[in-house]
């Protein structure tokens, strides 16, 4: 499917529905790495540094939630994490991620909906750029914490634009009240792309309390 650059970006940042978003990422997959490299994409490096702060290498499998083409997975692999699972809604993006050779396995799945993986499967969850009002909703927090073993860590970026409207902080606090996780760090906001003040994200680090 041939799309103009303007229409592709509209479908990425203002999708009408999940199907349109998935198709847009499938189309973007071949050009994604080059496009974000030209914009100096910073989130994967920041997320990796925070994973390294809290998760020892060899601790167990790390879920790259919303893996895209696997840029974060490559950073994590270079940092010494060898057991990585990529999860993304876009088969096209996952095909590119597989070509990096850094993942133990890859799964098609949509964050914000039930994921066909067992409880407490992961030592940690890392997510760069997925949670935000036009992508993964705040309801996705409960599923990723379900997938994280007790005592494991979640390092999640949240897009600042639409954060209040999307109820991300409210849901995070409700989950702390429910004894599902505790917040360890809040950092940022950071520019996902250097020099782009419209691409701001905060990074939240949680520890799972759910058995």
What is the radius of gyration? 16 Å
In the sheet with the most strands, the strands line up as 3-2-1-4-5-7-6
Beta-strand fraction estimate: 25-35%
What is the CATH C-level name?
Alpha Beta
Write down the overall geometry: globular
How far the N terminus sits from the C terminus, by CA atoms, comes to: 45 Å
Provide the domain count.
1
Proper CATH architecture? 3-Layer(aba) Sandwich
CATH H-level superfamily title: Vaccinia Virus protein VP39
Instruction: Quote the average pLDDT.
Output: 89
Poorly predicted runs are none
The count of helical stretches stands at 8
Series of H and E elements: HHHEHEHEEHEHHEE
Any overview of this molecule?
With 211 residues, this protein is an alpha/beta fold. The protein has a single domain, classed as Vaccinia Virus protein VP39 (Rossmann fold), CATH 3.40.50. It contains eight helices and seven strands; from the N terminus they run H-H-H-E-H-E-H-E-E-H-E-H-H-E-E. It has a seven-stranded mixed β-sheet with strand order 3-2-1-4-5-7-6, sandwiched between helices. A hairpin with an 8-residue loop joins strand 6 and strand 7. The chain is globular and about 45 Å long. The chain starts with a helix and ends with a strand. The mean pLDDT is 89.
Descriptive keywords:
211 residues; seven-stranded mixed sheet; Rossmann fold; alpha/beta
Short structural description:
The chain is of the alpha/beta class. It is built from eight helices and seven strands, in the order H-H-H-E-H-E-H-E-E-H-E-H-H-E-E. A hairpin with an 8-residue loop joins strand 6 and strand 7 (200-208).
């Amino acid at each position: 499917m041939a799309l103009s650059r303007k229409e592709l970006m509209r479908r990425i940042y203002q999708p009408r529905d999940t199907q349109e978003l998935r198709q847009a990422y499938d189309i973007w997959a071949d050009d994604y790495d080059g496009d974000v490299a030209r914009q100096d994409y910073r989130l994967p490096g920041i997320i990796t540094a925070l994973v390294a702060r809290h998760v020892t290498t060899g601790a167990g499998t790390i879920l790259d939630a919303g893996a895209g083409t696997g840029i974060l997975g490559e950073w994590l692999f270079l940092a010494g994490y060898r057991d990585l699972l990529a999860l993304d809604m876009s088969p096209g993006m996952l095909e590119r991620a597989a070509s990096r050779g850094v993942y133990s396995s890859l799964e098609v799945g949509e964050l914000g909906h039930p994921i066909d993986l067992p409880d407490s499967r992961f030592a940690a969850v890392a997510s760069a750029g997925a949670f935000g009002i036009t992508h993964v909703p705040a309801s996705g927090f409960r599923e990723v914490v379900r997938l994280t073993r007790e005592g494991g860590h979640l390092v999640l970026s949240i897009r600042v634009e639409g954060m209040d409207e999307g109820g991300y902080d409210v849901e995070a606090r409700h989950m702390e009240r429910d004894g599902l996780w505790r917040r360890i760090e809040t950092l940022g906001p950071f520019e996902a792309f250097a020099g782009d003040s419209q691409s701001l994200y905060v990074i939240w680090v949680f520890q799972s309390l759910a058995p």
